[in-house]
Amino acid sequence: MSDKVFNGDFFKNLENISLKARMTINNGAAGGRRSKAKGSSVEFSDFREYTPGDDFRRIDWNAYGRFEKLFLKLFMEEREAYINIFIDCSKSMDFGEESKAKMAQRLSAVFTYLAINNLDRVCINKISGNSLIPSTSFMGKGSFQQALNFIEGVDFSGSTNLWEAIKKKPLKPRAVAIVISDFFTKGSIESLVKYFAFNKQQIIFIQILSEEELNPKIDGQVRLVDSETMEEINITITPKLMKAYELKLKSLTSGMKEQLKKYGGSLIQVSAEEDLQKVVFEKFSKEGII
């Protein structure tokens, strides 16, 4: 996955962008974002121990001479943002000619890279059934390969209940919550949004759908099999039924948009077949999340 996501110009372009944390960060360890916290100097703020992959130009060599350790010098009251990425690991995500799961993994890797490149701290959370499996906290470019290994180890199977799983996760206030899913899930999406808002999260929902789901090309008598429960149903596809499906899908998406809008959140719908660069540099930029 890493070879396909991070190569050539795409890799270089990621160096120049970052997630836009809209909340004011007034706590947390030293990092790369401005804070309201007051310091002892107009310019200098703090030190943070150097992590392999950090910008060596920010190393304080005077501190190295005194402590024989590498430290980064931080300015303008910089603080880290804490970013949680939640990946829906249900079997329905492993659907489509171009797998939704593959796009979910790629976008998780992109968000992780953007976070650690900006000196933020990121945790990747796998959601399976009602359970949540968190990674360790990743920070610094030296941890990116470890994060990739965690992402690549995702097993997409069974069903998920996003609300039941995520509500078990204690959330740091004034953080960023990114949920990557098709949102074909049990449980209440509205309750999930309210939980994030109550914990003062900047909320970003990425809905990944396959082209077959966005523009289905089936008709006549068919047997549909639920990929998660393996339940089967025989139905006749008619233009009226297809119209009902289209309206139902639009209702799901518009309903989430309205719920998120109340709390300043964002919903971005992505096709599993879309070009990754277009998603990141056009869609994410248009929505103002980078």
Automatic annotation (TrEMBL):
Q: Which residue intervals define the domain DUF58 in the entry?
A: 46-246
Coiled-coil boundaries: none
What is the superkingdom listed in this entry's lineage?
Answer: Bacteria
Which Pfam families does the entry link to?
Answer: DUF58
Signal peptide limits? none
Protein's recorded name: DUF58 domain-containing protein
